[in-house]
Amino acid sequence: MKLFTPILIKNLELKNRIVMSAMHLGYTGDRQVTERLIRFYEERAKGGAALLVIGGTGIDEHGYFNMPSVADDKYIAGLREMTSRLHKYDAKAACQLFQAGRYAFSAISGVPSVSASAVKSPLTNEVPREMSIEEIQAMINTFGQAARRVREAGFDLVEIIGSAGYLISQFLSPATNLRADEFGGSLENRMRFGLEVIREIRRQVGEDFPISMRFAGHELIPGGTDRDDIITFAKRLEEAGADMLNVTGGWHESPVPQTTMDVPLGAFVYMARRIKEAVTIPVVASNRINDPLIAEQVLVNHQADLISMARGLLADPELPRKAQEGRFDEIRKCIGCNQGCMDHVFEGRIVECLVNAQGGHECEIEEKTAEIKKRILIIGGGPAGMETARVAALRGHDVTLWEKSDRLGGQLPLAAAAPGRSDFNYLDEYLQNSLIINKVRVELNKEAGVNNIKEFAPDAVVIATGAGPMNLPVPGADRPNVVQAWDLLQDSRIETGKNIVVVGAGAVGCETALTLSRIGTIDAETLQFLTVHKVESPEVLYELSTRGSKHITLVEQQAKIGVDIGRSTKWVISMDLPRFGVEVLTGARVIEIADEGVVIEKDGERKVIPADTVILAVGSRSNNELQEQLKDLAPEIHLIGDGLKPRKAMDAVHEGYHLGNEI
Questions:
Q1: What is the DSSP string of 338-362?
Q2: What is the pLDDT of residues 214-247, one digit of tens each?
Q3: Within a domain: residue 205?
Q4: Which of 13, 242, 327, 637 lies most in the core, judged by the most C-beta atoms within 10 Å?
Q5: Is the pLDDT of residue 63 over 80?
Q6: What is the SS3 string spanning 88-146?
Q7: What's the per-residue H, E or C state across 232-258?
Q8: Residue 123's domain is classified under what CATH number?
Q9: Would you say residue 366 lies in a domain?
Q10: How far is CA 28 from the centre of its chain?
Q11: Cis peptide before 266 (omega within 30 of 0)
């Protein structure tokens, strides 16, 4: 595979084309390198990634408190410890220099944020102070000093973040740079700050040290930098001394999703291709590349020279080695859920991973061989049960799993059924493959009861029986036109009428409404055909892509929808519902389902919503009746996952992992 061929970045040879791009982890408390941070990257170095980019790393007091820093020489020793340990595994280390500009939180840093111009930040709701010429020159020198420390700390490459809407982006973009001096106005002037940063870094690190710039191939914001101007900027970066360009897409405030599950795999590779065609230095492709086979196609099709993976290596640090050895079925792919990474960052928590419970806890959790081999019976083949089985078998236990239905997966197939949510299938496939690899005996259509469990004589029983959908306690809820959302998502053959009311706007209700909204829209192949042949105008094509044949009303009793959806995904769903014609009613309580439709009460008034079909998505209840029946039937009895309490897939996987590692 070309993915595993070496490449030169200036005079730095990388053993393969896999770059772990920088990601905010929150593993430091005082900006110093910690053992947690080192162990996290050590596992990725062991796993075979060629270049690990540490960061963002703050260059001054504006850096976030829980990210590492290179703002002072006192940080060099800790960073040097990290690079020396990563180098033991034939991995190269880079450090990304971070200055947030108007994305900095003054409440965290204790100093006002600064930027090219005083344009309010939608992320912080703060107006930054416009930098003076003297402050700009001082900031350029600060970047250079930080890069000098990076080299002294033993890093092999320095990267500057000029993407995502941070300071360099703010100088480049006419949306945030309103200056009238030599750092604003024309493209030449708006590029000046970023180019001067490159030149100053080159002056301070010397001619032989590689420099990379990560920047947006498209800002994806109204009034942003023109696409052709971005190409010009790329060329000028090369002239100024950049040795590699790491191309990503958009800003944090962009209205276009970039990292969520609904983004097609490799959707932004075209941006890297445009840059690669304009420069001679190596170009990195980024965003939603979680599969080495997709990465390989990007390389062989000459769309980029290297592949950036961050969350893909959070999910499976051994992805490079597994791919190189042809063990593709063993790769634990990132599913783009954002539950443990992006959502945790927004909540000020450390980064974790839904599919990899060990991620971020490498220095706390070790998978040790079991001292006493046990005969373990797991009841339930959802994510909690399968993860428990995988880890317990990996540790040497004798594991059997019973599943009462004819398939494994629990609610994962339901989660994967909605538009843009199919990546949940990756987790289902990985867990099922792991059961085979680790020789877990699986029996489908096997109902667990006191007698057959007693006959099995387990040393430990794990009850992972999941949850089921709740009913709506109102008159008419048993009418034949009332369907559970779970049933609809499991069986696409269920017929629905033209007018549909979905009751409950949590994750399941929103995703069910979006699933139904796609009925009657044109598919991607038809859209391409109509576009290529110019059959319809862009406006008509947009309408054909977003308006289906159903009229859907989503009813929620609470004041807001999606209370159980993470912040990094909720905004996408909230935009998609009106985009696809779903009418949303909040603060509306269903009091009856009648012949004429769904009777609701809102603001003290009753109203009837016409409905041919009513879909219930009002929550779930645990299936835990077996726990009491099995009391004293085995030396150990454990209840986990939704069987304990209905929650998210991340809770199920993590509970399964910890139990499998401790039992």
A1: -TTTHHHHHTT-----SS-TTTT-T
A2: 999 999 999 999 999 999 999 999 999 999 999 9
A3: yes
A4: 242
A5: no
A6: CCCCEEEEEEECCHHHCCHHHHCCCCEECCCCCCCCCCCCCEECCHHHHHHHHHHHHHH
A7: HHHHHHHHHCCCEEEEECCECCCCCCC
A8: 3.20.20.70
A9: no
A10: 21
A11: no
Give Rg (Cα) of the chain: 27
3-state SS string for 177-196: CCCCCCCCCCHHHHHHHHHH
pLDDT of residue 542: 97
- The pLDDT of residue 653 is 97
583 by Cβ neighbours in 10 Å (0-12 / 13-18 / 19+) ranks as middle
DSSP-derived 3-state class of residue 500: strand
DSSP 566: -
DSSP state of 557: S
> What is the layout of strands, in order, in the sheet containing 597-602?
588-594, 597-602, 605-610
pLDDT at 416: 95
Q: How does DSSP classify residue 466? A: -
Distance CA 284, CA 263 (A): 19
What's residue 631's pLDDT? 80
Q: What is the 3-state secondary structure (H, E, C) of 37-60?
A: HHHHHHHHHHCCCCEEEEEEEECC
The Cα–Cα gap between 275 and 273 comes to: 5
Count of structural domains, the chain: 3
Total-model pTM: 0.94
Residue-wise pLDDT tens digits, 242-273: 999 999 999 999 999 999 999 999 999 999 99
> Could you list the residue range(s) of the whole structural domain that residue 422 is in?
375-467+621-662
The alpha carbon torsion through 367, 371, 375, 381 (nearest 10 deg) reads -10
Write down the mean pLDDT value for the chain. 96
- 484 & 576 share domain: yes
Residue 208's identity, in one-letter code, is D
- Domain identity same for 415 and 560: no
Residue appearing with tokens 């040790």: 368
Whole-angstrom Cα distance, residue 296 to residue 302?
10
Structure tokens at 197: 């940063």
List, in sequence order, every residue forming a beta bridge with 48; answer none if it has no partner: none
Residue 597: partners with Cβ closer than 8 Å, 6 or more residues away = 499, 501, 608, 609, 610, 611
Q: What is the CATH number of the domain that holds 448?
A: 3.40.50.720
Q: What are the φ/ψ torsions at residue 620 (nearest 5 degrees)?
A: -135, 160
Phi/psi for 522 (5° steps) reads -80, 150
Give yes or no for a contact between 239 and 186, defined as CB atoms under 8 angstroms apart: no
pLDDT of residue 545: 97
Instruction: Give the closest residue to 469 by CA, choosing from 387, 411, 514.
Output: 411
